[in-house]
Design a protein that fits this description.
The protein is an alpha/beta fold. The chain has one domain: Alpha-Beta Barrel (TIM Barrel), CATH 3.20.20.100. It contains ten helices and ten strands. The chain has an eight-stranded parallel β-barrel with strand order 3-4-5-6-7-8-9-10, surrounded by four helices. A two-stranded antiparallel sheet has the order 1-2. α2 (58-70) crosses α3, α3 (92-106) packs across α4 and α7 (239-247) crosses α8. The longest helix is centred in the N-terminal third of the chain and has 15 residues, at 92-106. The chain is globular and about 55 Å long. The record marks 84 as: Lowers pKa of active site Tyr. One of its GO terms (molecular function) is oxidoreductase activity. Pfam families: Aldo_ket_red.
């Protein structure tokens, strides 16, 4: 981590801000909101923007970035932008066209980080989640090592500065790391990670290979009914987390974010609420002491896992 604690050096020499702004939103949220909240997040101080083709809002997020460049708030090199290769484009010949499509939607010359969104291939085509007549998902057979080679070529072409993966377990990572003729290691592995799912073993593995763990869902899992049992507890309502926050005069969200940063994890804070966006950026300020979590650990707190 750099002296100010704002960025982490990746294994290819580039730097990633330790706090990122997540742009995923449910379908009921209008695309125009992605434009407005991304502009607001940049104004608030976020410089790491995380998006994906799957989110179907890269056009609006790109417009927000370009507008903040145009008005002098930031320069392009100030922004670290992440996009993701969706599962319907994992065939090697589809990788560069997919990245070029994202760049066209964004109206940017390059992305800072391009990652494989999910280590499962789906049938290529316009449908993001292809299904047969019975509603069953249609998978595809792709060697992820060949997909990775196509990503390496995108890096060499200057379309992306860094390349990485998302939702990979350690065995899937090892397959890439042990690939004959590997040119570039993944710089990161983006996975769901929060105090209820701390990913300690995967974090240890990634650190041992100089791969940065990036945490999404850091404030708790997405409460989407198809994914999560609505009866499960809310992380930010956890009594232990609330007690820690109250004692240190912080919010549970800031404690959850700081928890990740102090264990060497890059953390994404997703919110379309302007008040919370302003609150989340405070995790990088002096108001949330760097020793906060060390104190917590010494006090013997533990969260359920």
């Amino acid at each position: 981590m750099d002296p100010k604690g704002q960025t982490v050096k990746l294994n290819d020499g580039h730097y990633i801000p330790v706090l990122g702004f997540g742009t995923f939103a449910p379908l009921e949220v209008t695309k125009s909101e992605a434009l407005e909240v991304t502009k607001f997040a940049i104004e608030a101080g976020f410089r790491h923007i995380d998006c994906a083709h799957l989110y179907q809002n890269e056009e609006q997020v790109g417009q927000a970035i370009r507008s903040k460049i145009a008005d002098g708030t930031v320069k392009r090199e100030d922004i670290f932008y992440t996009s993701k290769l969706w599962s319907t484009s994992l065939r090697p010949e589809l990788v560069r066209p997919a990245l070029e499509k994202s760049l066209k939607n964004l109206q940017l010359d390059y992305v800072d980080l391009y990652i494989i969104h999910f280590p499962v291939a789906l049938k290529p085509g316009e449908a993001l989640l292809p299904t047969d007549e019975n509603g069953k998902t249609i998978f595809d057979s792709v060697d992820l090592c060949r997909t990775w080679e196509a990503l390496e070529k995108c890096k060499d072409a200057g379309l992306t500065k860094s390349i990485g993966v998302s939702n990979f377990n350690h065995k899937q990572l090892e397959k890439i790391l042990n690939k004959p003729g590997l040119k570039y290691k993944p710089v990161c592995n983006q996975v769901e990670c929060h105090p209820y799912l701390n990913q300690s073993k995967l974090l240890e593995f990634c650190k041992s290979h100089d791969i940065v763990l990036v945490a999404y869902g850091a404030l708790g899992s997405q409460r989407i009914k198809e994914w999560v049992n609505p009866n499960l507890p809310f992380l930010l309502e956890d009594p232990v987390l609330s007690a820690i926050a109250q004692k240190h005069k912080q919010t549970p969200a800031l404690v959850a974010l700081r928890y990740q940063i102090q264990r060497g994890v890059v953390v994404l804070a997703k919110s379309y609420n302007k008040k919370r966006i302003k609150e989340n950026i405070q995790v990088m300020s002096g108001a949330v002491g760097r020793g906060l979590l060390r104190n917590i650990l010494h006090e013997g707190y533990s969260l359920s896992n």
